Amino acid sequence: MRNTTKTVTTVLAAGALALGVAACSPSSSDDKNGALVVAASPVPHAEILNYVKDHLADKAGLKLEVREFTDYNTPNLSTQDGSVGANYFQNQPFLDDFNKKKGTDIVPVVTVHLEPLGLYSHKVKKVDELGKGATVAVPSDTVNEARALKLLDAGGVIKLKSGVGNEATPKDIVTNPKGLKFKELEAAQLPRSLDDVDAAVVNGNYAIEAHLKPAKDAILLESPKNNPYANFLAVKKGNEDDPRVKKLAKLLTSPEVKKYIKDKYQGSVLASF
């Protein structure tokens, strides 16, 4: 039986939860002979980790515990305070923004996969069918909102100001021929918004959780070529040489995991190694 702990949180509760976890359990990063506790989004991150736990970890001499979180704040906060030893859920632009805003010092260890960001709709089948004044929901966090707008820019739906970076907002749109309106929602809520808006830009992990198939269902999909948004295993700075972390990094980039990702996700998740 898998030793998996699922923790349901909200952004507002993230800090409190992280402190609560730290208060009731010893630091995961202190005992190098104990299990490595990894915070992860349920899909696909925890699924990939559980594959490693069930099929590869014992042979490598690695004790692994997976804790699932449904928000994008608690995993880093828990890694910073030592409640968990590592996390697996994020990309470099998101981490850079988080470290800057929260004063944390989380660092990447090894890149594992990419979840292409997609535009989905229950009302139109092609992106050019979006009507005048249509409402498009986008993630509310800084990096993913910018990423969503860049997707729409790349698809010719809007045009962003030249040189705009990972802090782009709708205010940076210079051409909007359809007069699209943008609704900012927490990333986890976006799949549930599809009946209420004309379209929504959804992160790959939440799309898969909602039984959407990015490679098939997205009316606009991010290209994996030269994509900076690949997801990685991360730790608090200074823990990169933890032997458990090194073992997990090696297993996450093994041929077995590459085959698992290919077979299970059928192009909705792409190995990045």
From TrEMBL:
PROSITE patterns: PROKAR_LIPOPROTEIN (PS51257)
Any one Pfam family match given in the protein's UniProt record, by short name: Lipoprotein_9
Protein name: Lipoprotein
Upper classification of the organism: Bacteria, Bacillati, Actinomycetota, Actinomycetes, Kitasatosporales
Superkingdom per UniProt: Bacteria
Listed CDD domains: PBP2_lipoprotein_Tp32 (cd13597)
Topology in the lipid bilayer: Lipid-anchor
This protein's UniProt keywords: Lipoprotein, Membrane, Palmitate, Signal
Subcellular location: Membrane
Organism: Streptomyces niphimycinicus
Signal peptide: 1-23
Protein family (similarity comment): Belongs to the nlpA lipoprotein family.
